[in-house]
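Structure in, sequence out. Go:
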């Protein structure tokens, strides 16, 4: 076959999410929606552009929530349902649970042998999370070493790209450094056993929660992908707005209003124009503005919730998808591990 007729090889993409319960709009707009677009992306000839692996990071959940694992199994299930509800298609990507692929833990152990302690201690989120989660004892090896596990998650599939938003790009850098160090010690000649993954920057719109802060479970300000229409409308009705707009007759400034930030993501350009005109002139009240937003959010969630209802009613199908994903992930990971074991002298 000539070079001109060769099919382009799909570039491998890897990403995952910790199972902390049902996913919310922030998870969807910040990651899941982009994952669906990546799995569906094609080249000019219609062939898949990417080979995608998306996993539920249950090992990572233990790095901070090791003291109480009673809800872990249910959380894993909820995330699996939300993955499928959002549109991830097991025919177009590999969906699996991290702990179903032992190579993640094995490679993490081996990478730990070569990674300087100072590299782990300088990771910004190490001290940040210790400050934010003071009620938990995070002075553990597992928490300190989570960047190693994250690196193993990526490198065990020899991933080309890790899709992240601009604010998370730095998190991939330690993986690149660890891969570089491993290849320096163990790769023969110019061969790179663990290629350095590249960041695949994906759009991650600003998505405030109902209290105006970043949407996060820890703040209790989320709108879940599985929330009913009544729940969505009730939550949005309490959402904070422009603090200067105290009375109905006060004019507002949409550009400093968290509600308008959500309009920018979910509402049509026509609705946004109506909101801007009505708010700045006090022609509409905040309740009407929030009602228009609720209409748009409910419309966005409708197909997601329809798919979730289907998979909730077919649990055996969900099990089969995760089992098949684990088989495929194990096969690919084992290819890497055979090279790694041989390189470090374990074979």
């Amino acid at each position: 076959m000539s070079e001109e007729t060769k099919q382009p090889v799909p570039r491998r993409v890897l990403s995952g999410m910790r199972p902390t319960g049902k996913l919310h709009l922030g998870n969807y707009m910040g990651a899941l929606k982009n994952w669906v677009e990546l799995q569906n992306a094609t080249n000019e000839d219609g062939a898949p552009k990417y080979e995608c692996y998306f996993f539920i990071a249950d090992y990572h959940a233990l790095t901070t929530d090791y003291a109480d694992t009673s809800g872990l199994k249910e959380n894993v299930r909820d995330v699996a349902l939300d993955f499928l509800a959002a549109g991830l298609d097991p025919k177009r990507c590999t969906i699996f649970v991290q702990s179903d692929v032992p190579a993640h833990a094995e490679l993490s152990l081996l990478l730990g042998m070569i990674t300087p302690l100072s590299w782990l201690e300088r990771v910004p989120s190490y001290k940040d999370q210790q400050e934010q989660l003071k009620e938990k004892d995070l002075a553990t090896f597992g928490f300190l070493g989570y960047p190693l596990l994250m690196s193993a998650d990526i490198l065990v599939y020899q991933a080309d790209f890790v899709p992240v938003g601009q604010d998370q790009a730095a998190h991939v850098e330690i993986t690149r450094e660890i891969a570089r160090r491993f290849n320096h010690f163990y790769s023969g000649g110019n061969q790179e056993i663990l290629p350095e993954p590249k960041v695949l920057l994906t759009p991650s719109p600003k998505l405030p929660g109902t209290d105006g802060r970043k949407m996060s479970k820890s703040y209790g300000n989320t709108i879940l992908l599985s929330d009913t229409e009544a729940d969505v409308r009730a939550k949005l009705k309490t959402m904070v707005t422009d603090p200067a707009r105290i009375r109905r007759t006060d004019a507002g400034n949409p550009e400093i209003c968290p509600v308008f930030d959500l309009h920018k993501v979910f509402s049509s350009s026509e609705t946004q124009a109506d909101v801007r005109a009505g708010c700045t002139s006090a022609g509409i009240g905040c309740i009407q503005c929030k009602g228009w937003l609720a209409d748009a959010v409910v419309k966005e969630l409708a197909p997601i919730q329809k798919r979730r209802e289907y998979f909730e009613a077919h649990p055996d199908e969900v099990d089969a998808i995760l089992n098949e994903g684990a088989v495929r992930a194990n096969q690919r990971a084992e290819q890497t591990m055979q090279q790694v074991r041989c390189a470090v002298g374990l074979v």
